[in-house]
Design brief:
Length: about 170
């Protein structure tokens, strides 16, 4: 009979099992339950790094899911891989994985990006008195970097956008 509010780090619905499960269980017993949006890790990343997804495009995946499924990557857009600290953890827990799992991720990424391509290891501030971290490294150094379970890999574009001449001409003629 009481009103309850739960607050979660980042957006409560993104990479968050517990909030979804709480709402499902509350509704199952006849309680009213809603999820309100929060400031997400994506919002922090955009602001902290000064990026605009609208400039060249934006692709984002959870890191383990990215490795497990065949994806088509557009290297003229940003690629954001969330939770790279736990990449390869098939239990979907929060256990930070090691060099071997990151090397498998690199094997996938090397089919798109050169070894010297600069990437950013990003960690949002988790407390109000903390600052975000952004470490720029060549992609080849990924296995050696210390990561947290919430570390994010930001891969800037490796090639320029290519204008579709046919569509461009069509738009000019309308």
């Amino acid at each position: 009979g009481k009103q309850v509010c739960a607050i979660f780090y980042g957006h409560p619905g993104v990479f968050a099992y517990v909030p979804h499960k709480m709402i499902e269980e509350a509704k199952a017993i006849g309680c009213k339950a809603i999820m309100e949006p929060g400031i997400s890790a994506e919002d922090c990343l955009i602001s902290d790094l000064g990026l605009d997804p609208g400039k060249v495009g934006w692709q984002q995946y959870e890191a383990t899911q990215f490795m497990l499924y065949e994806r088509v990557i557009d290297t003229s857009a940003y690629l954001i891989l969330w939770q790279i600290g736990v990449v390869g953890d098939l239990s979907y827990g929060i256990n930070v994985t090691g060099k071997a799992a990151r090397q498998i991720l690199l094997d996938v990424l090397y089919s798109y990006y050169p070894e010297e391509h600069e990437v950013i290891i990003y960690e949002a501030a988790t407390l109000p008195f903390k600052s975000f971290k952004a470490q720029r490294i060549p992609i080849s150094a990924l296995p050696e970097v210390e990561l947290k379970d919430y570390s994010t890999l930001v891969i800037p574009p490796s090639k320029s956008l290519k204008l579709n001449q046919v569509i461009s001409r069509k738009l000019e003629n309308i």
